[in-house]
Amino acid sequence: MPDLGEIEAILLEDRTEEAIRLLEEYISSAQVPSDRAYYLLGNAYRKKGDWQGAINNYLEAMEINPDSPAKNAYSIANDILDFYNKDMYNQ
Questions:
Q1: For the chain, what is the domain count?
Q2: Which among 42, 49, 37, 53 is positioned nearest to 84, based on CA atoms?
Q3: Hey, which bits of the chain come out as E strands?
Q4: Less packed terminus of the chain by CB within 10 Å, N or C?
Q5: pLDDT of residue 73
Q6: Cβ distance 11 to 47 under 8 Å?
Q7: What is the rounded CA–CA span in Å between residue 23 and residue 29?
Q8: Among the listed residues 32, 43, 49, 34, the one whose alpha carbon sits nearest the alpha carbon of residue 8
Q9: HSE-up of 59 (CA within 13 Å, CB side)?
Q10: Per-residue pLDDT tens for 18-75?
């Protein structure tokens, strides 16, 4: 199984589905929970447009490590979702 650095490189190459699969395998087989793995999984879901999946994984990362970079990503995701107004597009 690739390490998190290799999985992050896959994600940066826009191989999002592959990165999600590898991260889920990594998380399920890890002896110790990894905030970085959840943070990367959140980023992968965000790239895919799955905001709920992204937020859920950012929250998991923050539960493991309150100082995780997921804290900033979570805040940004919420700001984006707060700005988005569906009614504006339903006229």
A1: 1
A2: 49
A3: none
A4: C
A5: 97
A6: yes
A7: 10
A8: 43
A9: 7
A10: 999 999 999 999 999 999 999 999 999 999 999 999 999 999 999 999 999 999 999 9
Length, in residues, of the chain: 91
Range of the domain at 50: 4-89
Q: Give the model's pLDDT for residue 82.
A: 79
* Tokens 């589905």 belong to residue: 17
Nearest Cα to 60, choosing from 36, 30, 29, 25?
36
For 65-91, letters b (16+ CB in 10 Å) and e give beebbbbebbeebeeeeeeeeeeeeee
Write out the DSSP string of 13-33. TT-HHHHHHHHHHHHHH-SS-
**Residues 6+ away with beta carbon under 8 Å from 38:** 27, 57, 58, 60, 61, 64, 68, 70
Neighbours of 39 (CB within 10 A): 27
CATH code, domain with 22: 1.25.40.10
Structure tokens that stand for 1 in this block: 């199984």
